[in-house]
Amino acid sequence: MHDIDIDLVEMTLDVVKYAINRITKTNPELGKPKSEQELRSLVGETITANGIGGENAFNLFKEVLIKATVPIDHPRHLAFVPASPTRAAIMFDLVTSASSIHGAYWMEGAGGIYAENEAMRWLVSLTGLPEKAFGVFTSGGTAANLSGMVTARENWRKVPENKNKKGLIITSSGAHSSIKAMAKVIDADIVLVPSNNVMSKEDLQKAIAALSIAERERLFAVVATGGTTNAGIIDDLKGISEVCKQENLWFHVDAAYGGGALAADSVRHLFQGIENADSITIDPHKWLFSPYDCGAIIYKNPELAKEAHAQEGSYLDIFKDEGAQGFNPSDYQIQLTRRVRGLPLWFSLATHGTDKYKSAVEKGISLANLASKIIQENPIVELVREPSLSCVLFRRKGWTATEYRDWTYKNHREGFALVTPTKWKTGNDYETVSRFCFINPDTTEEDIRAILKTME
Ligand SMILES: *Cc1c(COP(=O)(O)O)cnc(C)c1O
């Protein structure tokens, strides 16, 4: 559709001006949600037979809609896993959209896919996987985990007696919710290894030994976590990989959040064993400073992923013809049509160099250590556990769950900070505690002190 009746140049300038403003702003306003009803009364009808015009729509976005969102890159947004896309990556996200590249097949997207693959090669090099290993960018960790699990399951089902069996996966209770959700999608059962901490080699051995014979025959994969979302805990990847090898099980490492820390020399040793994985999930949109959405699934043997994922269709045959040979991202994960979502990461890596990425990740880890030190010096709070990667769990002495919740809402309402409570299990009890997750290298010591001050 051609936008013949709008002033294209003017509109483009407006949009680019907005983008420049937003990209250079380091302390954006911390917005808060409004109810749907409120938004409706503020925004009114926008989809009409004749359109309301670009200027009107853009003004509504700038004056109402954007203010009802929380910028994920605010330096005092330390909840969930925040984000902090580089300016270079955000700029190139605009360029990626403007370039209209189809990222499914080499035949159409070769130049874009080539650049994505350069970024992927660096990502793969961080894992220490053997030479043939490779991966593809996905919409996020959930899609990456699903793609890895489908590959594992299809590989297992190549053995004729597994054809009609329902699969079974072992993971730890600290694993991300998407593992359980994606097990439902592939209709596999999950056995959760209870663990308040690291899933160890022995934990896994015990869990396997506790299976019935029929269950053991259905077990095809183990999912370890390379940095739990809640506490940054890294399972015993080396020990688990040894068990998987011995038991002939697919070894998937979910490092959606923690994977960025593979670039950090100070903690790289904690990931020992990840080089034995059959598949690894890493989210560049979490700790590798990419804009949403950008996940990645990496395979030790990409051919197995291709066997599981390549789609067949008469109108797709042309992509498999000789003249079109090249890397087809669609063959290695669940999505067909896709944007070249690795391009912003590529441009940013090419612009800054990998050393800058190393130091930006190290910054998150040192902010966690700094917060830990400040918490230990402050009598009203205490650490729940030593920080792990960039996660700090701490307690405001004497507070109930309601007080944590009210405190969160108050800071959010005032546009000051977004820091949310979480739960931590000690013995059999779940306790409500508070949590910092540091991603943004622009977060300062003053930010940390000011947030703790609001707990007084
Ligand atoms: C965030 C996260 C996921 C899910 O990733 P999305 O990009 O949100 O789909 C999966 N696993 C872990 C460990 C995560 O931290």
Protein model, in words:
The chain has 456 residues and is α/β, with parallel strands linked by helices. 42% of the residues lie in helices and 13% in strands. It has 16 helices and 11 strands. It has a 7-stranded mixed sheet, sandwiched between helices. Strands 8-9-11-10 form a 4-stranded antiparallel sheet. Helix 4 crosses helix 13, helix 8 runs parallel beside helix 10 and helix 14 runs parallel beside helix 16. The chain is globular, with a radius of gyration of 23 Å. The relative contact order is 0.14. The structure holds pyridoxal-5'-phosphate (PLP).
- Biggest sheet strand line-up: 1-7-6-5-4-2-3
Shape: globular
End-to-end gap: 57 Å
Determine the strand fraction and express it as a percent band.
5-15%
Number of strands: 11
Largest sheet: 7 strands, mixed
Describe the structure concisely for a colleague:
The chain is of the alpha/beta class and 456 residues long. 42% of the residues lie in helices and 13% in strands.
Q: What are the key terms here?
A:
456 residues, alpha/beta, 7-stranded mixed sheet, 4-stranded antiparallel sheet, 16 helices, binds pyridoxal-5'-phosphate
Spell out the blueprint of helices and strands.
Elements: H1 8-24, H2 36-43, H3 54-65, H4 87-99, H5 106-127, E1 134-138, H6 141-156, E2 168-172, H7 177-185, E3 189-193, H8 201-209, H9 213-218, E4 219-225, H10 237-247, E5 250-255, E6 279-282, H11 284-287, E7 295-299, H12 302-309, H13 343-352, H14 354-377, E8 381-383, E9 391-396, H15 401-413, E10 421-426, E11 429-437, H16 445-453
Parallel strand pairs: 2-3, 2-4, 4-5, 5-6
Antiparallel strand pairs: 1-7, 6-7, 8-9, 9-11, 10-11
Helix pairs in contact: 4-13, 5-13, 6-7, 6-12, 8-10, 14-16
The protein binds pyridoxal-5'-phosphate.
